[in-house]
Structure of Transglutaminase-like putative cysteine protease:
Amino acid sequence: MPEFKIQHITKYTYEGLVRDSANQIILFPIKDAYQDVIKQDMQVTGNPVIDTHIDYYGNEVGSFTYSEQHCLMLINSKLEVITRQRPLPVNDIFPEQQWEDLKRLQYTMPYIDFLKQEYFEGLSELQVIVEQERSKNDTPYQIALRFCNYVYQNFEYIKGVTTVETTLDEVWKLKAGVCQDFAHILMVMLRLLKIPARYVSGYICTHSSAMRGEGATHAWAEVYIPDYGWLGIDPTNNCIANETHVRLAVGRNFSDCSPVKGVYKGSSGHKLEVSVTVEDENSCNSYDDNKFIHDTAPLQPVTELPKNSYQRYMEIIQQQQQQQ
């Protein structure tokens, strides 16, 4: 059972004094048979009270408000978690039976939410590819692995070419992006075949130089397999998400799982830095509160708004804690 120490620091530096910063955080790992949280320490500038609740998708969500004037906001999550390897699906059920089982889920909660298809102009093109990539005798599990490989092989992993505002059409035309874009395209392909698929945010806990997504929050997809349950598929690395993937939240898409978002009163200009470090049980390093990553995706151009007014687009701007 791997044990990981994870530190996730979000740092906002504002151009001037701001106040009434109201934030939502989804930084509390999922707790289930395959993931145990040993302890978690959450430190926020001003030490505001963090109220938590469980949302519709079962995620633990925190909210807090820091009313005093400030020019710096730090959210520092220190986490120790144990993961367990999940057994893989067994393809001993006739494919026809599995597809029939999926048909019965189309009008069943909560699977309805994970079958809703977002329209975009490239959908018809992707539909053709989906039909080309599938085989008549494939099980849903085999389809998921094949689609994962398609995304991995046909989309280029490039940091900074997309943001949280980038649409599916833009990703489809670029044929490039980061982990959240890869996950969204994979989910579209699965949903076109009426296979429930959901978005997952979390961390990838490996020091392999061949794995993409370290140093920031990571994202992948989960596909529902009949008589098995939810299976994590990571198209960014063309692998099954298992004991090296720590899950924070699940939802229909990125917006349901955004690690940090909020609004504040004050100057619109700010700088965001994010650092995620992971140590396993064999590491001797300690948490480093001064370590930040400076090569995150560029911030969007700042829109000048009157001082001390609520920023109309602050939720989008603050979501620049883009998953890599």
